[in-house]
Design a protein that fits this description.
Belongs to the aldehyde dehydrogenase family. With 466 residues, the protein is an alpha/beta fold. It folds into 2 domains: 255 residues, Aldehyde Dehydrogenase, Chain A, domain 1 (3-Layer(aba) Sandwich); 194 residues, Aldehyde Dehydrogenase, Chain A, domain 2, CATH 3.40.309.10. Strands 11-12-13-10-9-15-16 form a 7-stranded mixed β-sheet, sandwiched between helices. Strands 6-5-4-7-8-18 form a 6-stranded mixed β-sheet, with helices on both faces. Strands 1-2 form a two-stranded antiparallel ribbon. Strand 15, helix 15 and strand 16 form a beta-alpha-beta unit. Helix 3 packs across helix 4, helix 3 packs antiparallel against helix 7 and helix 4 packs parallel to helix 6. It is globular, with a radius of gyration of 23 Å.
Length: 466
């Protein structure tokens, strides 16, 4: 894939970029290594001052970078502005809380006395340059949720962003540099995916984090494993959305529409499989389908647009293959299942609801990355949980109920990194984020996110001798 800005609303290539030469990659790796040697010794107060300066700059420039994101990957402009605001919030949150999250921890003296220690503590130290391989769907947020904690921990970042969002990637480098971070603390590497292995195998790169597809995660994890370097992976998701008889069906259906089509349906944590108890199935299905059908597909730069184009022609083709396979095998469309009329240019797809989905269909097991929902009827909570877990993914989950026993059962048994009750999945800087099974491992955000790339150091002190 060329490194280029291609507007998905009309398919026009707006800018192209040459990949970095081997010499320039080497220069940037050396700069990252040199920056870490000094930046690691800065205090939390100085790091917080720099990160807050970056947050202030991003807040001032939010409208401009939002337009860049929309131009590069097609999300509605309002969503792009909200993404920028979320990044500002996360930066300020880590600036305010990092020192507390990484404070020394001291076990009870009675617990360690038999180790011979007079005292002991756990100390968190930065690791070094971390490679971040990031996707296009949230081109600002995915990076900031790594960069903010990493920089506050004293690490430095090397960003290999998706090739279709190069201008957003370059903006991020400029954001941190112009905020005052020392040269080399955060650098964007405009390189093809084939360059990742060499960079990750370089001794100066100590760890990696990846958000993206399962194949990409498998590749990075295998390379890092061979080099014995830690990784955090956030991969695909096919999140279940369970609706039980005691639910507020109006609220559940209304929220379901947003949960499915957020970011034009191109979100790992978007609800994708709607599993509804038979007692409320007809009511939910009607309201949900009406809501999906009412969405306005259009130019993502227009305020009235609910759903913009998919990010690429290939992305739409992949989605169409999943839907067509399901239709051939007996699925019934309640709405959509085609390209919307009136769009001769751009990579648009109509909001779609499919029912009568079976396990013979690819869409039952594979992630649908676009505004396509699958709808299932189940007789009870046991069947709902079994169906929810019938997926290789385990990123998050949603449960709508006012029965506390339903909540207890799902928190215990749903195979996912999150259970969101009477609401849709969302990430927040104070809450750990990540999944299980083929959705990856490790956690971003909260304390877990900032400690992911720290040397957790045990400091043991014996009795003083006179």
């Amino acid at each position: 894939m060329p490194i280029a800005t291609v507007n998905p609303a009309d398919g026009k290539t707006l800018r192209t970029f040459d990949p970095l030469s081997d010499e320039e990659i080497e220069r940037r790796l050396a700069a990252a290594d040199a920056a870490f040697r000094t930046y690691r010794t800065t205090g939390f107060e100085e790091r917080a001052r720099l990160l807050n300066a970056a947050a202030d700059k991003l807040e001032r420039e939010a409208d401009d970078i939002a337009r860049t994101m929309t131009t590069e990957m097609g999300k509605p402009l309002a969503a792009a502005k909200a993404e920028a605001a979320k990044c500002v919030k996360a930066m300020r949150w880590y600036a305010a809380h990092a020192e507390r999250l990484l404070a020394d921890e001291r076990p009870d003296e009675d617990d360690v006395r038999d180790s011979g220690a007079e005292s002991a503590k756990v100390h968190y130290r930065p690791l070094g340059p971390v490679l971040a391989v990031m996707p296009w769907n949230f081109p600002l947020w995915q990076v900031v949720r790594f960069a903010a904690p990493a920089l506050m921990a004293g690490n430095v970042g090397l960003l290999k962003h998706a090739s279709n969002v190069p201008q957003t990637a370059l903006y991020l480098e400029d954001l941190f540099r112009s905020a005052g971070f020392p040269e080399g603390c955060f650098q964007t590497l405009l390189v093809p995916s084939g360059a990742i292995e060499g960079i990750l195998r370089d001794d100066r790169v100590v760890a990696a984090t990846l958000t993206g597809s399962e194949p990409a995660g498998r590749s990075v994890a295998s390379i890092a494993g061979d080099e014995i370097k830690p990784t955090v992976l956030e991969l695909g998701g096919s999140d279940p959305y369970l609706v039980m008889p005691s639910a507020d069906v109006d609220a559940a259906a209304r929220t379901a529409v947003t949960a499915r089509v957020q970011n034009n349906g191109q979100s790992c944590i978007a609800a994708k499989r709607f599993i509804v108890h038979e007692d409320v199935y007809e009511e939910f299905a009607g309201k949900f389908t009406d809501g999906m059908r009412a969405l306005r597909v259009g130019d993502p730069m227009e305020d009235s647009t609910d759903v913009g184009p998919l990010s690429s022609e290939q992305g739409r083709a992949d989605l169409e293959e999943l839907v067509d396979d399901a239709l051939r095998k007996g699925a019934e469309p309640l709405c959509g299942a085609q390209r919307p009329e009136g769009f001769d240019h751009g990579w648009y797809y109509a909001p779609t609801v499919l029912t009568d989905v079976t396990d013979t269909m690819r869409i039952h097991r594979e992630e649908a990355f676009g505004p396509v929902a699958t709808l299932y009827r189940v007789p009870d909570l046991d069947a709902a949980v079994e169906l929810a877990n019938d997926t290789p993914f385990g990123l998050s989950s949603n449960l709508w109920t006012h029965d506390e026993s339903d909540v207890e059962r799902c928190v215990r048994d749903l195979e996912a990194g999150g259970v969101f009750v009477n609401g849709m999945t969302a990430s927040h800087p104070a809450l750990p984020f990540g999944g299980v099974k083929r959705s990856g491992y490790g956690r971003e955000l909260a304390a877990e996110g900032i400690r992911a790339f720290c040397n957790v150091t045990t400091v043991w002190r014996g009795p003083a001798r006179h």
